[in-house]
Amino acid sequence: MNSLGKIIKYSFYDTLRSWWALLYGLFFLIIASTLLYFSGDFNKAIVSLLNIVLLLVPLISTVFGTMYSYNSREFTELLLAQPLKRNHIFLGQYLGLTLSLVLSLSLGLGIAFLLFAGTAAESANLFMLILCGCLLTGIFTGLAFLISVLFEDRIKGFGIAILVWLFAAVIYDGLFLAFLVAFNDYPLEKATIGLTMFNPIDLSRIMILLRLDTAALLGYTGAVFNKFFGTWQGTMVSFFALLVWVLVPLLLFLKKVQRKDF
Amino acid sequence: MVALINILVKYLVYSSLVVIMLAGCAISTAEGRSIRVSPTGQIRTVKEAVSLAKPYDTIWVAPGLYRENNIRINKPLAIIGRQQPVLDAGFKKGLFTIEANNVLIAGLTIRNVEESFVQNYAAVRVVRGSKITVRDNIILNTYYGVYIERAESCLVKNNIIRGQAKKESTSGNAIHIWRSNAISVIRNKVSGHRDGIYFESAGNSLVKGNSSSGNLRYGLHFMFADNNRYEHNRFARNGSGIAVMYSRNIHMNDNIFEHNWGAAAYGILLKDIADSRIERNIFRQNTTGIYAEGCTRLEIKNNEFRNNGWAVRLLGSSVNMAFKHNNFIQNTFEISTSNNYSSDNTFTGNFWSSYTGYDLDRDGIGDVPHKPVTLFAYLLEDIPASIVLLRSMFVDLLELIEKVAPVLTPDNVRDDAPSTRLNSLKS
After folding, report:
1. ipTM
2. How far is CA B26 from the centre of its chain?
3. Contact A220 B386 (CB under 8 A)
C-alpha cells in the first residue's frame, strides 16, 4: 500500500474512532427511522429528510472539517518531516475524513430505509438524496480544509467557515430572492437555472424536489426547470456542476498546501 | 245459474284478451319492421338498410366488419348492433349523420373517422333533432366521437370513446355538445381526445358517472352552459384538467378530480361562474385544485383537497365565495390570493392540516383563527420564478418571522372557526 492509501486509512479510522462520526450516523438513523415510521409515506419522509440533510450535512462537514484540520496540525507537521509527497498527505487526510462522514451518512440513512423499504422508484429518490448528501459532504469538507489553510488563527478560520456555510444555506437564497424581485419584469427562468448552479445546496434541493411529486406544482417556471433538470442531460449537467464544486475547493487547497510554509 | 255466469265471465275475459293481442300485433307491424344487416345476408351494408327502412323501423346489425362511411339518417330509426359489429370509416369522412327525431344507435363499434379542418366528422353526428339515444357503443380512433348540435332531450350513455390524439390542433372532442338543451351524458368512458366532454351553449343537462382521462386538453370543458349538473364523474390525468366558463347555476357534486399535473393544469378552472355549488368533490394531486377567476356567489362545501400543489387559487376578481366544511389535507399551498384581493369571501369550519392552533373547550372548533395564505404563496403570485426557493431554509425562516409578526400576508383571508377534526364529506 502506498503512502496515500496509508494516510487515508489512518484518517478514516481516526475519525471513526472518535464519537463524532458515530453520533452523526446514529442521528441520521434515528431521524430517518422516526420520520418513516410516523409519516407512513415514503416520499413525504424524503421531503422532510431533504430539509434536514440540506441543513445539517453542510454544517457538520464544515465544522468537522475545520476542527479536524486544525487539530491534526501537529500530526501533519510530523508527517511533513517524513519523506512523503505533500499531495498524498493532504489528499489522504481529506479523503479519509470525507469517506468516514459519507459512510456514516449513507449507513445511517440506508439502514433506516432498509428497515422500512419502499418501492423501486422511491428507493431511487432516496439514492439521489444520499448521493447529494455525499457530494455536499465532499464540497463542504473541501471548503473547510481550504479555509483552515488560508487562516492560521483557529477562531478566525472557524468563524469564516461557519460564515461560508451560512452564506450557502441562507444568505444566498435571500440575495436570490432580492434578485428575482428586482428583475421581476424580465423572463427569469433561464437565469434562475444558471443561478442555482452557483450554490450546491440549492442545486441539490431542486434536483431532489423535481424527482418527487412536488415537481409539477412548480407551475410555469417549474415547467422550464423540469425541461432542464428532468431530462437525462440536465441531471448530468447538475451532477457535473456538483463535481466541479467538489473539485475546485479541493484543488485550490492542494495547490495552497504545496507552497505553504508550515 | 252461478255456473252460467262463471262461464259467461270467462268467455268475456278470453275474448277481450284475444282482441287486445290482435290489436297489439297490428300496432307493432304498423310501428316498424326489423331489417337485418349481415356480411353474408341479403342486405350487406347499413347504408342500404337505412335507405330501405321506413320510419320507426329497427335495423339489426349482425357481427362482422362493415366498411362504410357517411350514413345519413333522416327518419326515426333504431340501429342496433349484435355483439358489437364493427363499422369502419377507413379514415374517410364520418359515420352517422343524424337529422331526425327518435333515433337510437346502440351496440356498435365505430372506428377510424377522418380528421378534418373543414368538417366536424364524427362517429355519430347529430345535426338537429330530438330524443336521440347513443348508447353502448365503442368508438375508437375518431376525430369527434359523438357530436350533437341543435338537439333536444338526447341521451349519450355507456359508450367507450377512445382516441389517439397527438396534437390539440388536429384533434376533436370525445363528446361535443353545442347549442342543445336537456342532454344527458351518463356513464361514458372517454380518453385520448382533445377535450373529453365539451358543452357549449347547452343547458339543463346532466353529466353523470362518466370517466374522462388522458385527454390532451380538458377532461371537461363547458361554457355558456347554464343550469347543468355534474355528478359522480372522475376526471384524471388530463393535460389541463377541467375548465368551465361563463355559466351560472352549475351543480358539481361527488366528482373526483385527480392527477392533473402540469404547468397549466387545474383540478377545475372556474372562470366567470356564478350562483353555483361545488359539493362533496375530491381534489387529489392536482397542480392547482380550484382556480377561480371572476366568480360570484359560489358555495364550495364539503370537498376534500389532498396533496395538491395549490388547493385553491383565488384571483382578485372572485367575490362572494363561501368555503364551508372542506378538508384541506397536505397541500403545498392551501390558499393563494392575488394582492388586489377583495375581502368578502368567507371560510368557515374547514379542516386545515397545517392548523397549529388549539381547541381548549374541545368542541371541535379551533380557538385561534387559521390563516391559510402563507407568505411564500403570496410572494409566488407576484414573482412566479421564486418557486425555485421552495422548501429552502431562507423561505422557512421568512415564514416563521411572518407568523410571529404578520406584515405582508392578507389579514382578511382567514377561517375564524376552523374545524379541528376532519369534516365528514356527507352534507
Report:
1. 0.85
2. 43
3. no
For residue B285, the chain A residues in CB contact (below 8 A) are: 213
Q: Tell me whether B309 touches chain A (CB under 8 Å).
A: yes
Contact A215, B308 (CB under 8 A): no
A216:B262 CB<8 A: yes
Closest-CA residue in chain A for B289? Answer: A217
pLDDT in tens, chain B (427 residues): 556 566 655 665 565 555 555 454 444 444 679 999 999 989 999 999 999 999 999 999 999 999 999 999 999 999 999 999 999 999 999 999 999 999 999 999 999 999 988 888 999 999 999 999 999 999 999 999 999 999 999 999 999 999 988 888 888 999 999 999 999 999 999 999 999 999 999 999 999 999 999 999 999 999 999 999 999 999 999 988 899 999 999 999 999 999 988 778 899 999 999 999 999 999 998 989 999 999 999 999 999 999 898 999 988 788 899 999 999 998 989 998 876 676 788 999 999 999 989 999 999 999 999 999 988 888 888 888 888 888 889 998 998 888 888 887 877 888 999 999 998 876 5
Q: Does B60 touch chain A (CB under 8 A)?
A: no
> Do B394 and A206 make contact, defined as CB atoms within 8 angstroms?
no
Instruction: Please give the residue of chain B at the shortest CA–CA distance from A187.
Output: B385
For residue B333, the one-letter residue type is: F
C-alpha cell, B380? 409566488
DSSP-assigned letter for residue B29: H
What is the least distance, in Å, from the CA of A141 to any CA of chain B?
Answer: 21
Q: Quick one: three-class SS letters along A41-97? A: CHHHHHHHHHHHHHHHHHHHHHHHHHHHHHHCHHHHHHHHCCCCCHHHHHHHHHHHH
Put simply, whether A148 touches B (Cβ < 8 Å) is no
CA distances (Å), B64 to each of B40, B44, B53, B69, B87, in order? 9, 10, 21, 15, 9
Please identify which residue in the block is written with the cell numbers 451532477: A239
Q: Give the H or E element holding residue A101.
A: helix A86-115
Q: Which residues contact A173 (CB under 8 A, 6 or more apart)?
A: A199, A202, B389, B392, B393, B394, B395
- Chain B residue with Cα closest to A185: B383
Rounded Cα–Cα distance for residues B146 and B167 (Å): 19
Contact B262/A at CB under 8 A: yes
- Residue B144 to residue B127: CA distance in whole angstroms: 13
- CB-CB under 8 Å, A216 with B261: yes
Q: Which of A132, A170, A173, A196 would you mutate first to test chain B, the one with the most B CBs within 10 A?
A: A173
pLDDT in tens, A130-171: 999 999 999 999 999 999 999 989 999 999 999 999 999 999
How big is the A-B interface in CB pairs under 8 Å?
A: 83
Q: What's the gap in Å between the CA of B336 and the closest CA on chain A?
A: 13
Helix (H, G, I), strand (E, B) or coil at B190: strand
Could you tell me if B21 and B46 are in contact, meaning their C-beta atoms sit under 8 angstroms apart? no
Angle at A244 between CA A238 and CA A246, to 5 degrees: 110
CB contact under 8 A, B394 and A173: yes
On whether any CB of chain B is under 8 Å from the CB of A34, the answer is no
CATH architecture classification, B76-85+106-404? 3 Solenoid (2.160)
